[in-house]
Amino acid sequence: MKICGQAIRKIRREKDYTQEYMAFEMGISQKAYSDIENSKVKMNIEMLTKISEILNIRPSEICGISHKCGTEDYEEKYQDLLNYIERNNIYVPEKFTSKKNLTDEK
Question: Is the pTM of this model over 0.85?
Answer without folding.
Answer: no
